[in-house]
């Protein structure tokens, strides 16, 4: 795909018409549907290896426009060649997500990578209270990022500090470590609410890396809300889940996340990683 959207994704997937990178003066933007339990860096390495081999250019520039957490899926824009110059502007654009927020417990990472803890009643959560609370999150607000994030604290990635403190059982002593940042939630909508859902077991979900933990909550029936959000760069949906739980008088964590829009692309434009690799296939 060129730097603009392909008019027909199916045609674009047949094969890149040229293996000369100079034939793509604007570069190539690949909208990938990131697989579950793959890091964004995993996807980037896989595609860069294929692209370098295809174009025969060892110093080929390859980057992406906005990291997705390992347990998130959906739209990851991979930029190749001259398109890497557009990565920053693409990353700065509005993004849309569909988030699964589960109530009645929390985790240190605010998602399912860490063990569930701090169980508490969630009887206060129902469809009416959710709709009311969600309205309070609309617009500009100050948000504290998860400690398990790529935020920088005194020149060190926050997740590095978090791992050390988590191993010592000392995460309770981290208040004030991360400063709140201004974010904007332009729109949000409650898509569904289930007071007693059935969650899948981790082995029932597709995923690549055994090093990415997924907590098993299949025996629990924690209330689950599916929320669509459109938000600014720098918004952490894991933090939104935490804050929504607190607003409702309980605890909450992010049990699923799917990015559906970014930089003018939608999930309908996206291709699987295997389909993208076909672009660089050498006979």
CATH class of the largest domain: Alpha Beta
Number of domains: 2
Structural class: alpha+beta
Our count of helices gives 7
From the 3D coordinates, which CATH architecture of the largest domain would you assign?
2-Layer Sandwich
Mean pLDDT: 89
Verbal overview:
This protein is of the alpha+beta class and 283 residues long. It folds into two domains: 101 residues, Alpha-Beta Plaits (2-Layer Sandwich); 133 residues, Pseudouridine synthase, CATH 3.30.2350. 22% of the residues lie in helices and 27% in strands. Strand 5 and strand 6 form a beta hairpin. The longest helix has 16 residues. It is elongated.
Concise overview:
With about 280 residues, this protein is an alpha+beta fold. Helices cover about 20% and strands about 25% of the residues.
Write the layout of secondary structure elements.
Layout: H1 9-12, E1 28-34, H2 40-55, E2 62-64, E3 72-80, H3 87-91, E4 95-103, E5 106-107, E6 116-117, H4 127-135, E7 139-143, E8 152-153, E9 156-157, H5 158-168, E10 181-194, E11 224-231, H6 237-247, E12 252-262, E13 265-266, H7 273-279
Parallel strand pairs: 3-12
Antiparallel strand pairs: 1-3, 2-3, 4-11, 4-12, 5-6, 7-10, 8-9, 10-11, 12-13
Key features?
Pseudouridine synthase; 2 domains; two-stranded antiparallel ribbon; disordered N terminus
